[in-house]
Design goal:
Length: about 400
């Protein structure tokens, strides 16, 4: 990283002035892209062509007003409880009240904590080195805790509300339109940006597997849905470089050319509560330390084209040991069962909705119910995550 990029308090007042302008200009660019609106399908069930065009042009899209007030209230209540029950530091088994954390007994995933306003992975070899440039790290407040919760992995086993959102019929309809009717699951997390404390996520592209293969195309690494419980803005939200999903980027050089962590072409995702962002996993994206007073809670879940997964080697990021595994149809089918459980759980909670029909389950004659047995099947389900 260029020496002109400062970290940890050095010249941060100057940075705050600059980033205030950057946020304002970025928001204006974002709102001019024409890539936002409600989920719309044509009479034949296909995704509206204006959505498809804008998504592939920009590499992301904002679906407005997807989640209703009742669903948002349930998500907020359960996430607030999980924040309260988070371990106090990495490796801890108890929360701040001395109670066992919900992740106790789980083998993988669970609660991930970072130091306040830090960038723990930028400029390191973590996540296969896909975060090559470090973000600016503001000084934390004097009364800040040692660690704050940032990610809850394998989130569907910890939140029934998140499980039901995962089975949302309109969003799954979008997934089928973009990735094909046989689309494959990826992984699910809850991302939390604590107000005045949340750490940054350095610029990166998610995809690691297909850049140099014959399977590479503009959507070969799939996408993530990012459902916003409280909304997000230029200060606490994700930033994306429009159009950057079409090729592998030299992120280090991009940051060096910018002279800071503020990539000039990037734009923020601006969302109201209940909006859902869809971001191509190949797009350059990241987020700054949350120095604002606004909490961001993102219910994050992704999907891949099935053809990108079957026969691919795991990347080792999203499921422990997967770098030694070639994904086959059996693993994809097993991981997809969670989608059937989510659809059943949502059908029970919202019976007036028309449930989504997942073609691979229909073709295989599979049916699912939401009961105690289904809940048991959720335990450590994320060990089968399909990272590419």
């Amino acid at each position: 990283m260029s020496a002109t990029i400062r970290t940890v308090g050095e010249g941060y007042g100057e940075h705050e002035d600059a980033i205030a302008r950057y946020r304002e200009e970025g928001e204006a660019r974002a709102m001019a892209l024409g890539n936002r609106g409600p989920v719309r399908f044509n009479a034949d069930g296909s995704l509206h062509e204006k959505i498809v065009e804008a998504y592939w042009r920009c590499g992301f899209y904002i679906f407005e007003g997807v989640l209703g007030d009742e669903e948002l209230a349930e998500l907020a209540r359960e996430v607030d409880d999980l924040i309260e029950r988070a371990p106090v530091k990495p490796g801890s088994q108890v929360d701040k009240f001395g109670r066992p954390s919900p992740q106790v007994g789980h083998k993988h995933g669970g609660f991930s904590l970072v130091r306040p306003l830090s960038d723990p992975i930028g400029g390191t070899d973590g996540n296969n080195g896909r975060h090559p440039a470090k973000m600016i790290e503001p000084d934390a407040p004097d009364d800040a805790p040692e660690y704050v919760l940032q990610v809850i992995g394998g989130s569907l086993q910890f939140s029934d509300a998140a499980l039901r959102t995962y089975g949302h019929p309109a969003l799954l309809g979008v997934a089928a339109a973009i990735n094909g009717e046989d689309f494959s699951p990826f992984n699910e997390v809850i991302f939390i940006k604590q107000p005045g404390l949340g750490g940054s996520v350095a610029w990166h592209q998610d995809g690691t597997t297909h850049w140099e293969t014959e399977k590479f195309h503009k959507g070969s690494h799939g996408f993530n849905f990012m459902a916003q419980v409280h909304g997000c803005n230029a200060a606490n939200g994700l930033w994306v470089v429009p159009g950057s999903h079409l090729s592998q980027a030299d992120i280090r050089s991009m940051c060096e050319a910018a002279g800071s962590d503020r990539l000039p072409e990037a734009v923020p995702m601006i969302c109201a509560p209940g909006d859902v962002g869809m971001c191509n996993r190949q797009a350059v994206h990241g987020s700054f330390a949350n120095t604002s007073s606004d909490l961001r809670v993102t219910i994050n879940f992704g999907f891949h084209p099935r053809a990108s997964v079957v026969g691919a080697r795991g990347n080792g990021i999203h499921a422990r040991g997967s770098q030694h595994i070639i994904y086959d149809e059996e693993r994809v089918q097993k991981r997809s069962e969670i989608l059937g459980i989510a659809i059943a759980a949502r059908r029970e909670r919202f019976p007036v909705e028309t449930s989504f029909s997942y073609k691979p389950h229909i073709d295989a004659g599979l049916s699912f119910e939401w009961n105690d047995g289904a809940r048991e099947r959720l335990f450590d389900y994320n060990q089968l995550d399909l990272g590419i």
